[in-house]
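Fold this sequence, please.
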Amino acid sequence: MAALLDAVGAEQAIVGGLSLGGYMSLAFYRAHPDRVRALLIIDTGPGFKKDDAREVWNKRAHDTGDRFEREGLEVLKSASRERSSVTHRDASGLARAARGMLTQRDARVIESCPTSRCRRWSWSAPTTRRSSPPPTTWRPRFPARRRW
């Protein structure tokens, strides 16, 4: 993401994602907080604190990569209607993505959240005012709804 921002000459961006994309957005914010104007994450978990839970997740990711290598794009045909209708040239990129993007190396992303319960919260911050606070000053949106 940083290379993309550099390529287009943008100093900051509103970064967001759904599910894995949200985790990747959190990881990007952790690595480059000065490049993130606002962070929008939807249906996302911040990763695993415990090594054993992370190992189970990572095994599943590697198994998914192995399955793509063995069965190719046939794997998608047994998936949801949305996934089965996607077209790919071959499954090699999906296998690499499963092993590279899905796996989590440590607990740094979840530990960078302001609270250990951040996976249950939704955050909001203003994006329309020029003087928007940085993401580190965001407050949980629920249960107390606040309007900035």
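The longest strand covers residues 36-42. Strands lie at 13-18, 36-42, 123-124, 139-140.
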